[in-house]
Specification:
This protein is mostly helical. Helix content is 69%, strand content 5%.
Length: 129
Amino acid sequence: MDRLCLPNIGPKGRRWRYWATGINFVMVAFTLIASASADWGFWTNLTLAVPIWLGFLGFFQAREKTCVFLAARGLRSVDDRSLPFMSETEQIEDKQERAQIKRQANRVHLRTLGATCVLMTIVITITIL
């Protein structure tokens, strides 16, 4: 498996994603505590998949140094502003580089999906018991 990493986000963009992921998972933890004490139903607990998925998406983007939104558009961040949606971007001209970044984005999506499924299985199992 090719482990070359071509970042399309900078250190501040990564730091912002890690920070947002931490806040997200703290909120999910409090929601799980409320869910366990209030005995919410299956479908209500299933809605936790969205914030869990978003948390893992941010985490894996930071870890892989790859913004999946920019990768889908064939772009990279050219400055390192703290908020990723405010940074300037440029088109990636090199086809091999663009293909590598898209592979990295696919890896982010697959890891996000897998981690979300595992955690949601645990959440549903715990809340049902």
